[in-house]
Amino acid sequence: MIAERKRLSSGLTVTSKVFVRSRNGGATKIVREHYLRNDIPCYSKLCNKCQLVLKPDANGELPQFILSESPLKLNSGSPHYVVLDTNIILHAIDLVENIDCFFDVIVPQTVLEEVKNRSFPIYQRIRSLVKSDEKRFVVFHNEFNEATHVSRMKDESSNDYNDRAIRKVAEWYNLHLNTNNNSTTPVRILFITNDKDNLSKAKAEGIDSMTLSEYVEDLPNADVLRDLIPTETSSFDNIKETSYPEYYNNSRIMGGVKNGTLYQGMLNISTYNFLEGSVQVAAFKKPLLILGTRNLNRAFNGDSVIVELLPKDKWREPSTTIVEESTVGADDNAEEEDQEETSIISDKERRVLAQDAIKASSAIAEGTTDNNKLQPTAKVVGIVRRSWRYYVGQIAPTSVSQDHDSGNSAKSCFVILMDKVLPKLRIRTRKAKELLGQRIVVAVDSWPSTSKYPQGHFVRCLGEIESAEAETEALLLEHNVEYRPFSKSVLDCLPAEGSNWTVPEDFGPKRKDLRDKLVCSIDPPGCVDIDDALHAKVLPNGNYEVGVHIADVGHFVKANTALDNEGASRGTSVYLVDKRIDMLPMLLGTNLCSLKPYVERFAFSVIWELDENANIVNIDYMKSVIKSREAFSYERAQNRIDDPSQNDELTQSMRVLLKLSKKLKQKRLDAGALNLASPEVKVHMDSETSDPGEVEIKKLLETNSLVEEFMLFANISVARKIYDAYPQTAMLRRHAPPPATNFETLNEMLAVRKPGMNISLESSKSLADSLDRCVDTKDPYFNTLLRIMSTRCMMAAEYFPSGSYGYPEFRHYGLAVDIYTHFTSPIRRYCDVVAHRQLAGAIGYENLDLSHRDKSKMDLIVKNINKRHRNAQFAGRASIEYYVGQVMRNNESEQEGYVIKCFNNGIVVLVPKFGVEGLIKLDVLGDINSAEFDEEKYELSFTDFAGKKRVVGVFDKVRVDVKSIKDEVTGKRKAQLVLK
Fold it and tell me: Which Pfam families match (predicted)?
């Protein structure tokens, strides 16, 4: 390679890298040119040079100078600007974002690119800081500035090259600003890095540099900020509690994955046994079991891991023992250092693993093992990608001693995380005692191989445990839901709040006027973000015209705007019991786009001509203008349809819709669509106090089904249209058939507990029919229970761009259709926004943005919205669980429940009335020593405290006392069930 630099007549400098590539005996010369400028500003208001020489751009605007003329002073008395290294942003982003720290910050382009490549979420956060005026962050394009561009030296690593480029920025700013300063006070340019090598080189080059800790200590508010500093591994160098196996190096991992001796997958930790994880890999039908902390080897739930298969004599069945993290290592001291190295495995863990191993070995030796139940086992040998995020928990009171009050030095303590499958976290803080009883946010920094527990640092306090505000924010953080207010740049994409936007008289020739149609909406009571509306009428030929009209969000949300980027990032709205976290600003969802009654609104319409049997005769797609005649709740619409005295045109049209929807549903069921179930409940809130009042199981009316059927119908029709137009990038949704192994345990339970019943998996039709046949005449609820348990055996549906799979794999198993998408809720789902744009392109209404015609970009979009959709579901369920707990708090009652799992030391019971399930451990059921677990019969026998012999098994109906208690370990309120 030959590097050259020359100046052009225009004043620009161009650097050229000349490569000679040899291939098949021939030589190819490759020239890569990089243009440098001498007019890139420093963005400081203190600089008189940049502000004088810069010229306006094509729009007549000058670059905005952001860095303050009166920057913050350190305790040492000097005003300063800060240049940040990559590691500071990656590991201390919460401190960088803190409103009490970091102002007038220079982010070199080199740093920004490194952050983008290593963590896109953190990149987005730093970009948000740059857009914010409050903290004054600027991106300096050092790689295009003639004075700061550096060429790569021979044999220099990319990391060393980047470090040198960043140091050059700090050096240049110091010289530039203190030469051209229009103030009498010199400004100090501080380079902040925690990289020891980079720090030592910076000091050797005369650059004013500090570690993050040194910088924070020199700030006036250091006392507030100290606990936010990420814990350096060196802070825990003296802790030698254990010795985890070291991870394999990259070359060994790459070679092992390539030759098939190592496997990559996502780790899932068992809800009932934190010592047991599983990794699904394509090479095995059953997941690989990871048993014990040594084999889990510091991996977190959700980590992408590399695993190595263990010998067949170590293959095991999944454990039948409940083991919770809180019962293992409960007496560990967070502050002890230089203690004698101990085994990773606790005595209790050793007993559990030994029992499972003895049972497996005996069965193998006697030839009585059921090979169908055996699962291959493995160990974690590497981490590809950590799932670490912000976690919520509480400080363990037992880890806070009296000496936490003494002195100003940080003391170690444990934080018990709300997610019980995660280990406790060791942090160092000066505020441990005042944080007791509070929900706190923490971040994980590292997990050294010599520490039994991961290390982290305190981020912020949410409030008192069990307060509604703290618990709601906690569940949003736990499920990674973005809930911060929309930024000014996002809101600026919309009409002003009080502008009273209306449909313009001239709405263009391509948009159809459908204001004469008898359109109405049918939604849950109190719905304000109305996505969809319908109409129907009888045609002269006896057929029916039916229209589904969807809010035209695309009219306001244009591709690649700040508003669109925010919607794409959030992915979906999140519905909690007491609030809604919007994907798009409220003005859009509840006003501009909402298909409210009596006002004109833009819509995207799908209109069919259907015959008497609901077969499609014709179909048309159009952007439209509609005027809804009425907004019904499900119950009000049902009452109006059922009232024989109501015979107006609108009511007649709803009756047509109901008649046709029943035929559509029957067609789906005949094709094999599944009718599954989940324990859905509704929490009623007091309208004045917002306190939870009562819980009831959701009631579904015919009008619920009416709306559902036509939304499904529209989604299927749109899917076909956009796939025809964009066969590689159409936004679709698929639902894969469940592997037979997913239903093995459930079918074994049925064979033993309900002889003659079984679930067939040949097709969705056979599954649906077999579920219909599983009826217990003595217990009407049993069929619903079985559908709930079957739902948990299914695969999750997912969004995908059409080019990712062959057409047969597009199939939506649960709906029994060959192709499907989401089109009907663009106010609350980003998938639907993309589908709208693709449909608009398919019908020639407008050109489709390139981002939705590029498969790699669509892959990124669907990856994010799949994750966001899943998180939103979990957050909604967690909200219901919290408020159900509040309802039950002072209302202990006896309820009917069903046993859904059996272990050798407890049972799990589902209570349909509240939609909750609770673990009842053996030690509260009766005499532990008298208990016997029959694994083949899925039943547990024991002597209760009254001396009575009892036997309970899966599917048994039981009576339980239900009350709400606070878990002393996690601080979460949970249902406590006591068997009657």
Answer: OB_Dis3 (PF17849), PIN_4 (PF13638), RNB (PF00773), Rrp44_CSD1 (PF17216), Rrp44_S1 (PF17215)
Helix ranges (H only) for 672-756 are: 702-725, 744-753
- Residue ranges, CATH 2.40.50.140, the chain: 890-979
In sequence order, what are the residues at sequence separation of 6 or more whose Cβ sits closer than 8 angstroms to the Cβ of residue 822? 715, 731, 733, 799, 829, 831, 832, 835
User: What confidence tens digit (pLDDT) does each residue in 356-384 have?
Assistant: 555 555 554 444 455 667 889 999 999 99
- 815 phi, psi to nearest 5 deg: -95, -10
Decide if pLDDT at 488 tops 80.
Answer: yes
- For residue 152, give Cα distances in angstroms to 17, 141, 143, 149: 11, 17, 12, 10
Structure confidence by residue, pLDDT tens digits, 550-568: 999 999 999 999 899 999 9
List the alpha helices (DSSP H) in 149-292. 158-179, 196-204, 212-217, 222-225, 250-259
Q: What distance separates the 2 farthest-apart alpha carbons in the chain?
A: 100
End-to-end CA distance of the chain: 81
Burial track 607-622 (b if 16+ CB lie within 10 A, e otherwise):
bbbbeeebeeeeeebb
Please answer whether residues 97 and 124 qualify as being in contact, where contact means their C-beta atoms are separated by less than 8 angstroms.
no
CA-based angle 67:68:74, to the nearest 5? 105
Residue ranges of the chain assigned to CATH 3.40.50.1010: 66-230
Tell me the C-alpha distance between 499 and 858, whole Å.
35
Architecture of domain 890-979: Beta Barrel (2.40)
* Residue 953 contacts residue 900 (beta carbons within 8 Å): no
CA neighbor of 899 nearest in space, from 790, 839, 965, 977: 977
Contact 764, 790 (CB under 8 A): no
CATH code of the domain occupying 250-465: 2.40.50.690
Residue 909: count other Cβ atoms within 10 Å of its Cβ: 25
DSSP character at residue 736? P
- Contact present, 789 and 852 (Cβ < 8 Å): no
Domain range 66-230, CATH class: alpha beta
pTM: 0.83
